[in-house]
Write a structure and sequence with these properties.
About 30% of the residues lie in helices and about 15% in strands. By secondary structure, it is of the alpha+beta class. It has a domain at about 55-125. The chain has a four-stranded antiparallel beta sheet with strand order 1-2-3-4, covered by helices on one side. Helix 1 (about 35-50) packs across helix 3 (about 105-115) and helix 3 packs across helix 4 (about 120-125). The longest helix has 14 residues, at about 35-50. It is globular, with a radius of gyration of 18 Å. It starts with about 35 loop residues before the first helix and ends in a 5-residue tail after the last helix. About 20% of the residues are buried.
Length: about 130
């Protein structure tokens, strides 16, 4: 047992130390060496994974399925179909996805981020989609 009962090797009161947050990408300028397209994809990835959206699996499969993603502040819900981790493999019903030609949006990135955190779902996501 630790000499100081209020601290553990993980952090104060036995809580895990917070992860260092990756630096936010600029909203106005891409980092040097990053293409405009990759910058926009990474911005959506970073923003989407930081959101407090609600997600419901509306399909039959745990990963490669249809998900309803709801923004609690706007109360808007979008349908997201996940088929892989690469831009262009998935579909979202939001206006940004329909118009940005990037093949992703914050809703898609939110779902992929959430699935990648689960032990079983992360494994299935890494293995990839196999059509029936």
């Amino acid at each position: 047992m630790s000499a100081n009962p209020r601290r553990s090797k993980d952090g104060p009161l036995g809580q895990a130390r917070p992860r260092r947050k990756a630096p936010s990408l600029s909203r106005t300028r891409p980092p040097s060496g990053m293409s405009l397209e990759q910058w926009q994809i990474e911005r959506r990835r970073q923003f989407g994974r930081a959101q407090d959206f609600r997600m419901t699996n509306a399909g039959d499969e745990p990963v490669f399925s249809e998900f309803l993603v709801t923004n609690p502040s706007s109360r808007r819900t979008y349908l997201v179909r996940i088929r892989g981790t690469e831009p262009g493999a998935n579909v979202c019903s939001c206006p940004d996805f329909a118009s940005n030609e990037l093949g992703t949006c914050k809703h898609v990135e939110f779902v992929i981020g959430r699935l990648a955190r689960g032990r079983k779902t992360a494994k299935l996501l890494r293995e990839g989609f196999e059509p029936p």
